[in-house]
């Protein structure tokens, strides 16, 4: 980007909430159902129908607001946003204009580190508001016609509006990944952009470096993936710089991003609030929340991924390469927690089995489909630590457990993989190594524990990796102290 200009970016992210039914009717919603089968009179806005509020959607929105440190409104109203598009069956959308359910707050983001195995810089992106509204239908355009599917219409939708507080496509990427991660963590949404569960509009402007007044913003729509959002913003930044450098004026407008052509086209001049003729919805009572209801949602928030990552660093001494895999996925970190509750002695080994072997065996299947349980993993790690099973053979045992669900002890016995150690021969080898390497022996006995690694390495060569390292270490220490 031209270093003469500062980029200012704000995002409006629409997220479908995971509720059994729609926001104002009892009709369920599932992705991929035949068109226009998940509808009723309320969804279509037929005469004589009245909306009935879905309480679960309100409480999930409150939980999202609590997670992001928002101020939760004790009372707020509903508004009708009037517009005449074919995807809005009522010709208006029930939304919230000036009394959002959640105000303020922030989203913590992690920028990419200097290297893939290093943690990046963390910072907080300020939020303006989070409000609840109903989704619209879906238009599909063909060569000679457009078709409307109202299945999605009426689905609970939260709009998360950031302040103009991001300054690069990289920050936008980190923000969207953090949103996705946090919302999945509390099961508020699956955030699958391919299924339309998370959609994003970007407001982009530029200004000279050092200026405090915001430039004219342009809204970018039709951003259907996180990479698409970033590509669209990069293109818009360069387009605006070219406009300014050519002496022209940037026009406030809404532009449509075309990912295939890597370009944008003007859709319309930017609407203002009065264009939608908002007014208070006459058919809905205001939302009224008690302190107890809000506190219940606040208490339901689990330990969040970035806080968990810090705890894993400080208490379990796990590296970033492992925590960056386990912490973003709650199912993985829950699996680790359950394993350590059974066998807490070797968190590093348990975490590595999950981050590498368990994920590899799962492939594209969810963790819940795996045959491996925390009890299985705890038992496997214990067998290796106790020297009953070598690390090499443990890999074979793990694959069989993941295929059949048979406990690792049984697999080990049936396959004849249990280590049978000749303790007299091992002790003799230890004495041989101790005699051959007096320097690391002296260092270890002087208190330098890392010197033991030199002796273990030599002993592993002698045993050709057939004896578990735990058994080697125990035998070495015994001889060194003997």
Our count of domains comes out at 3
Q: Please work out how many helical segments DSSP would assign.
A: 16
Q: Please tell me what the overall shape is.
A: elongated
Share in helix = 25-40%
Structural class: alpha+beta
Could you tell me the radius of gyration in angstroms?
Answer: 29 Å
DSSP strand (E) fraction? 15-25%
Q: Calculate the terminal CA-CA distance, rounded to whole Å.
A: 67 Å
**Tally of DSSP β-strands:** 17
The largest β sheet comes out as:
10 strands, mixed
Uncertain regions spanning at least 5 consecutive residues: none
Mean pLDDT, nearest integer?
93
Keywords for this entry:
three-stranded antiparallel β-sheet, about 475 residues, alpha+beta, Arc Repressor Mutant, subunit A, 16 helices, elongated, ten-stranded mixed β-sheet, about 40% helix
């Amino acid at each position: 980007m031209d270093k003469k200009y500062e980029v200012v970016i704000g995002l409006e992210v629409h997220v479908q909430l995971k509720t059994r039914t729609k926001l104002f009717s009892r009709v369920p919603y599932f992705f991929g159902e035949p068109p226009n089968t998940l509808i009723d009179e309320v969804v279509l806005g037929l005469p004589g129908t009245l909306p009935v509020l879905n309480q679960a959607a309100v409480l999930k929105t409150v939980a999202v607001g609590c997670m992001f440190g928002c101020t939760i409104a004790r009372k707020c109203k509903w508004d009708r946003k009037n517009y005449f598009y074919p995807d809005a069956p009522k010709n208006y959308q029930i939304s919230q204009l000036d009394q959002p359910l959640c105000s303020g707050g922030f989203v913590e983001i992690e920028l990419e580190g200097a290297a893939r195995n290093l943690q990046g810089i963390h910072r907080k992106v300020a939020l303006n508001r989070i409000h609840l509204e109903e989704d619209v239908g879906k238009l599909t355009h063909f060569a000679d016609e457009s078709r409307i599917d109202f299945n999605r219409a009426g689905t609970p939708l939260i709009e998360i509006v950031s302040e103009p507080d991001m300054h690069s496509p990289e920050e936008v990427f980190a923000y969207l990944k953090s949103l996705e991660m946090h919302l999945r963590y509390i099961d508020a949404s699956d955030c699958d952009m391919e299924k339309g569960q998370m959609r994003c509009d970007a407001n982009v402007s530029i200004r000279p470096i050092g200026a405090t007044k915001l430039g004219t913003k342009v809204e970018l729509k039709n951003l259907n993936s996180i990479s698409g959002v970033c590509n669209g913003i990069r293109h818009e930044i360069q387009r605006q710089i070219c406009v300014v450098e050519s002496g022209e004026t940037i026009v406030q407008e809404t532009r449509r991003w075309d990912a295939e052509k890597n370009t944008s086209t003007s859709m319309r001049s930017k609407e203002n609030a009065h264009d939608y003729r908002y007014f208070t919805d006459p058919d809905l009572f205001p939302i009224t929340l008690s302190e107890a209801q809000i506190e219940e949602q606040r208490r339901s928030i689990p330990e969040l991924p970035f806080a968990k990552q810090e705890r894993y660093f400080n208490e379990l001494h796990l590296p970033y390469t492992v925590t960056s895999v386990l912490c973003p996925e709650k199912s993985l970190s829950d699996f680790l927690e359950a394993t350590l509750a059974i066998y807490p002695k070797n968190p590093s080994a348990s975490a590595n089995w999950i981050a590498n072997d368990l994920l590899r065996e799962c492939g594209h299947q969810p963790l819940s489909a795996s045959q491996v349980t925390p009890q299985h993993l705890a038992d496997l790690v214990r067998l290796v630590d106790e020297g009953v099973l070598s690390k090499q053979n443990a890999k074979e045992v793990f694959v069989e457990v993941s295929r059949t669900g048979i406990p690792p002890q049984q697999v080990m016995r049936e396959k004849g993989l249990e280590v049978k150690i000749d303790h007299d021969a091992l002790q003799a080898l230890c004495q041989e190594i101790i005699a051959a390497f007096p320097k690391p022996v002296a260092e270890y006995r002087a208190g330098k524990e890392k010197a033991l690694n030199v002796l273990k390495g030599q002993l592993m060569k002698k045993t050709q990796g057939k004896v578990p390292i735990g058994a080697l270490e125990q035998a070495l220490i015994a001889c060194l102290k003997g």
